[in-house]
Amino acid sequence: MENYMQNLLQRDLGSSLLSIAVILGWLGLFFVFLRVLTISIKKILEAIFKKS
């Protein structure tokens, strides 16, 4: 773990910022996907319950 921290600190700032940006980007995409999924499930359930 200590070795990992040293490697992280030795890296240049640019690559660290880039990895943070990539992680945040993936998180953002994940949340958007989750939102779309929940909205579609909600619409499907509403359609099912309206029929019955």
Task: Kindly describe this structure.
- With 52 residues, the protein is mainly alpha-helical.
- Helices cover 92% and strands 0% of the residues.
- It is rod-shaped, with a radius of gyration of 20 Å.
- The protein starts with a helix and ends with a helix.
- The model has no long low-confidence stretch (mean pLDDT 87).
Taken as a percent bin, the fraction of beta residues is under 5%
Helix content: over 70%
Oligomer: single chain
Strand count, sense and barrel status of the largest sheet are:
none
Q: Which consecutive residue ranges, at least 5 long each, have pLDDT under 50?
A: none
* Number of helical stretches of at least 4 residues: 2
General form:
rod-shaped
List keywords for this structure.
single chain; 52 residues; mainly alpha; rod-shaped
